[in-house]
Structure formats: C-alpha cells, structure tokens
Amino acid sequence: MIQAGYKYRESPRFRLLSDQQLDELHSAALEILRRTGVEVLDDEGLAVFAKAGAKVDGRRVRIPPHLVEWAIRAAPSQVVLCDRNRHPALYLERYNSYYGTGSDTHNIYDPFTGERRPTIKADVAGVARVCDYLPNISFVMCMGIAHDVTEGISDLHHFEAMVTNTTKPIVFTAWNLDNLKDIVEMAELVSGDPETLRLNPCIVAYLELISPLQLAIEPTQKLIYMAKKALPVVWTPGQVGGATSPVTVAGAVAQGNAEALAGLVLAQLVREGAPVIYGGGSIQMHMGTTVACYESPEFMLSVIAAAELAHYYKLPVWSYGTCSDAKLFDQQAAIGGTLWTLLAALSGGNLVHDVGYLESGLTTSFEQLVVADEVIGLIRRLMGGIEVSEETLALDTIDQVGPGGHYLGAEHTYRHFRETWVPQLLDWRNYAAWARDGKTTLGDRAAQKARDILNTYAPQPLAEELRMQIGSIVQRAEARMRGAER
User: Fold this and answer.
1) Hey, which residues does 237 pair with through a beta bridge?
2) DSSP state, 56?
3) Is residue 471 part of a domain?
4) Suppose 444 and one of 187, 265, 440, 455 were both cysteines; which one would form an S-S bond, judging by CB atoms 3.0 to 4.6 Å apart?
5) Is residue 124 domain-shared with residue 247, that is, in the same domain?
6) Which residue range(s) make up the domain with 114?
7) Rounded-to-integer distance, Cα 292 and Cα 299, Å
8) Based on the domain organization, do 272 and 404 belong to the same domain?
9) What are the pLDDT tens digits along the chain (486 aa)?
10) Are residues 59 and 75 in the same domain?
C-alpha cells in the first residue's frame, strides 16, 4: 500500500546520446579548437585570446583544452530573465522550457487580409502585442524586418516596437555594435539604470558566428560588449549541413560545439561569469533545391544533440520550436510545428525560439503563433507527467463506486476534474455541434483569435516619459545615419 502523504511525478524525457557519445563529441570539439582553431577577425578579441595563452597565428587562434574546460566551469549554469517590470520570469536552467517567437522574417501573412506581404514596423508591434496576450509564449523576438523604416537602424525600430508592446523578456538582434549600444541604452532606461538591468536582465542579445569556425568582427564585438556589461547573450553557430558544416550530423554537431565553446571561452576571458546561452543545430540543406530545411530530421537530431551537450556542460540552452518549411499555415505547418515543440520540451531546450516561423524562416504566421500557444499548453500538461499519490490513486473512490457504477457524482471527480487540460482552439465537439457553428477549420479559428487580440488587447503601457526617451534614441540614430550618408 502506498504510504500516506507520498507523491511521485516523473516528467517524460528524450535521450538521444549516450554518455560515451557525449564524451566523444566533447573531445572532438576540444580537438577542433586545439588543432584547427577559429579565425578571429576582431582585433580586441584576438588580443584577449593571445593574453590568455591561446596560440595565435595571424588571425587563426588555436585554443588549448584547459582553457575550454575552465570556461565551461566559469560560465553560469543558470540565467534568470526578468520582465519589463523587473520581476523574474524565466529560469533558464536544467529542463525548464520557455517558448518565444523567431526573428527577422521578410514577410508576414496579414491576419485581416490573408495577404502575404513584406513586414512593416506595425507588424513587429502587433506580434509583440499578441505574444504579450498569449499565456504560453514567454519571450519575444522581432518576428520581422520592417521595410518601412531606415534600413540601417531597423533593429532599433524593432526594439522600440517590442518594448512598448510587451512586458515579456526580449531577445533582440542588432545590426552592428553602435546599434547594440543604443538598444542596451533603451533597456537601461526601461530598467531604471545599468546596474538594475544587469541584476534583472529583460533582454538577451542574439549573436551568430559565421560557420565554419569564423568569429567575424561584428558578432565578436557585440559578444565582448555584452560580456563587459554582464548581460546575457545567445551565442550560436549559423550552420547549414553540407554547406557550412559537415553533411553528417555527428560532424556538424562536433563543429557547432567547437564554435559555441569558442565564444563561451572569449566571453569568460572578458568577464568571468558572463552569462552565455549555449546554442546549436545544423539546418540541413536540401541538395536538390539548396533550401535550408527546418523540418529535416537531421536538423532536429542536431538540435537535440546540442541540447544534450548543453546539459552535459550544465549551460542554459537555446533551441527551436513550432517552425516549419510550409508556405502557409496548413497541415504541414501543424505537423512540423507540433513535432518541433514536443522535441524541444523532451530534450530540455530552455529558450525555445522560432514559434510562428513558416517558409524556412522567411515568413511570419499569426495562425502558427496562436496555435502554437495552445500546443505548448498541451505539451506542458504532458510534461507534467502523472502524480502517483494516495489521493490520485483514488482507491477509496474506486471502492465506493464499485463494479458497474459511475464517477460523475463522486466527490473525487469534483475535486479534480478542473485539472484536466481543455483546448481553446482545437475542436473536441461532435460533428453536429461543429457544423452548427460554421464548420470552421483550425486555421479559421486561429486567424479570428489573432484578429480579436489585435483589435481589443492593450498591453501595459510604458510611461510617456520613457516612450519619449526611447524615441529620442531612435531619432539620434536616424541623425547618425543621415550623417553617415553625406
């Protein structure tokens, strides 16, 4: 008999790599960094590696294994992200999974016209507003490159649109170091001052090195700046299997691991304890079309392997979810998006991005985003597992109902029926009820929900003085751009 007060709950997990395979991949990355090394194009980054004892030959830097091992130990195993109000929101550690949008798509499906068109600044604001409303979307990326603003500082416009339309943490991209500094300045204004932002970070800089094995000037400069500020970054390789990484999954993972660890070493050398979110995954190139395929099982395997390496190192991990190569929200988008979301949870991805991505990262879909929110809720219930306790085993209730009875009137049912997960968009009714209400598809209902949010929901506003200060930073950058053009 189960003991009184005993409770046990096991969360489902997915294991791809054995301990020996993880050791081999780690050793392979150490050997790549020791023998082949990385090319460092930024002078300051080069000097940092040289001072630490790495072998520098021109711009080629070969990193000794002991330096890599030190950096892994020095990096924090937990990164806490806060919301705009400085409240802790995301605990990036172990197997905690949080989902958010992707970044920098060129197109969007307009939820009111159904038209696929280039994104504008209002779309970035609209996606942020929808994300702010949806309970299972935990962070925001800009989800569009605005075509109606000055190109060289569109990233500043993106951040302005996001920070004024959501209180949730923001993962941002910056085109160059000057723009990065402007965005950090905006975040410092919102937080109150630089020290408050450092202690309660509401932003993460997304930084992507150039595969294979090249630390280009701009991402390296941005990594160094963020490390000096002790602000969190995502540092991830931009691999395409068969093009910029080996076509085999193991080779791509080994190279990607080396690339991720090279950035980790640099960040820790700049400031020991600098928060770095480990990223990885090699998008497989379809050799017949040269398209980088998000739904490729090889890509999924490489992302799972990167997540397991991050757990092996006890580092927070960047992952993928609810993205698809489908050209619109259809059955393919639903299949690919759901599979990605489940795999991210099972493998323990912490900061899971690309929710709402279609067309291999080129198009934003409100339908995919809204449905993803529901799918994430369902998967979170699955990941909650089953509680085994005296109460949940219900032996007394089973005995009271007995053979041939029913549980509709049981006190146990009354106490627990609200714990079952109930959908908002998936239709579990019978055919007659569905037909009576117009025979709507999941896409129809998702588009209507997105329109309703955009038409009626108002996020918590920023103080007017803050809005004006943020706007003045954008205007200052506009003036800088005009000066550069002369």
Assistant:
1) 209
2) E
3) yes
4) 440
5) yes
6) 8-388+421-486
7) 9
8) no
9) 556 666 667 888 989 999 999 999 999 999 999 999 999 999 999 999 999 999 999 999 999 999 999 999 999 999 999 999 999 999 999 999 999 999 999 999 999 999 999 999 999 999 999 999 999 999 999 999 999 999 999 999 999 999 999 999 999 999 999 999 999 999 999 999 999 999 999 999 999 999 999 999 999 999 999 999 999 999 999 899 999 999 999 999 999 999 999 999 999 999 999 999 998 899 888 888 888 899 999 999 999 999 999 999 999 999 999 999 999 999 999 999 999 999 999 999 999 999 999 999 999 999 999 999 999 999 999 999 999 999 999 999 999 999 999 999 999 999 999 999 999 999 999 999 999 999 999 999 999 999 999 999 999 999 999 999 999 999 999 999 988 766
10) yes
The backbone region for 311, taken as left when phi is positive above 0, alpha when psi lies in -120 to 50, beta otherwise, is alpha
Residues belonging to the chain: 486
288: amino acid identity, one letter: G
Contact yes or no for 297/100 (Cβ under 8 A): no
| pTM more than 0.90 | yes
The CATH number given to whatever domain includes residue 168 is 3.20.20.480
Residues 6+ apart with CB under 8 A from 483: none
- Residue 88 counted as domain residue: yes
CB 234 within 8 A of CB 171: yes
Asked if the structure places residue 407 within a domain, the reply is: yes
C-alpha span between 16 and 19 (Å, rounded) = 10
Domain count, the chain: 2
